[in-house]
Amino acid sequence: MGQKESKYGAHLLTRLTLTLNNPMPSCQSPTHTTHSFPFLSPVSLARRRRRLAASSSSAAADEPPGMAARSPYFVPESEGIRAGESPAAALRRILASPGAHQAPCCFDALGARLVQRAGFPICFMGGFCVSAARLGLPDAGLISYGEMVDQGRLITEAVSVPVIGDGDNGYGNAMNIKRTVKGYINAGFAGIMLEDQVAPKACGHTEGRKVISREEAIMHIKAAVDARKESGSDIVIIARSDSRQAISIDEALWRVQAFADAGADVLFIDALASIEEMKAFCAVSPKVPKMANMLEGGGKTPILSPAELQEIGFSLVVYPLSLIGVSMRAMEDALIAIKSTGAPRPGSLPSFQEIKDTLGFNRYYKEEKQYVVEQAQPSSANIVLRLKITEKSGTQKINEGIPAGILEKISKAIPGLAGVNFTEMLQGADQSQKGKMLLDREDATGDRIQVSIE
């Protein structure tokens, strides 16, 4: 990776570049640079900065400037799910609006919060990166339904933008798919992606993939639609076919058309090998949104900008490796630096204050103040005191636990206690001061009088 100036558009933009197998088409004139990260054109960046400036006065009181102020590429949090709107309804609204909407793939709650904070309207929980981060294992059918639902619940609770969950092949037959869809609904997902691979599944853009029959694949989508209806949900069903690589492009086009007829809301063919194939895909069921997978760093599908993808006909774009990839590289670099010098390279990590800002410490403290309850001191009258009266000879006359309120009332009748103000002596005291001696004196007869907290 390195820095390079883009030749596209009227402006020169600085961006991170990846080695790509597929060149940019000469017939296109994109307005945005090819990228794997949320880098913006000068016009878009200026608009974002104006929005940030307009909201900075109110935001500054809640949270000190962190990454949003430090980096021009970080933008205010996206609009997200509106009041009274379900996550799925928010996703449908976004997909119905113009544009190829970007959805970086996250693998945990922190990554999802960064996606939202960077201004993306959608987050995608990818099976590849969750399997890598949670298990340290390849995306080869090893991660389970339960692990994915558990991870997804943590992610959806951390953000206010719609989250799409990778449902792999549904983890079984049609009945398993119904359970998977219902579980993803309960976990808070706005959408679920289901593929037509056999079990155990293989990772996308890899060799050796096999798909189930046409009939079974269609039945799986119908089962997902039925599960949605039974749950009273509007979760978005993304039907994915891996048959492009397993069989042929013609088979993949046939399948996604059948998936649309079965009730799928969004269509996706993995590993499309050319722009021509991408255009042919988008021509199928034109009114049904299409998803593109920009596999960073060397997949089979051409890497195009959002503007180019929109022109072809895509409504949703996912980036499966960006966050997990840069996280792996950053952790490796930090560990090498720690081992050699005892600390990460200067400037390679955010400050502790920036980390706290990202995690929402200031917002937490502000909300916490709403629920602070003043701890009332216990009434001194309820504190139990131990009264001991011992004669000169050592004979113990009294050794009793008596509530302070009662002892104060009867103190006038006990020689040596007359005039003692126990209320004043117990000011600020509580039962946790057990054993504290409050009074130790002799009366006129020589008896020793001791009063302590019981």
TrEMBL record:
Molecular function terms, GO-annotated: catalytic activity
Species of origin: Oryza punctata (Red rice)
Superkingdom of source: Eukaryota
Name recorded for this polypeptide: Isocitrate lyase
Pfam families per record: PEP_mutase
Residues that span the membrane, as ranges: none
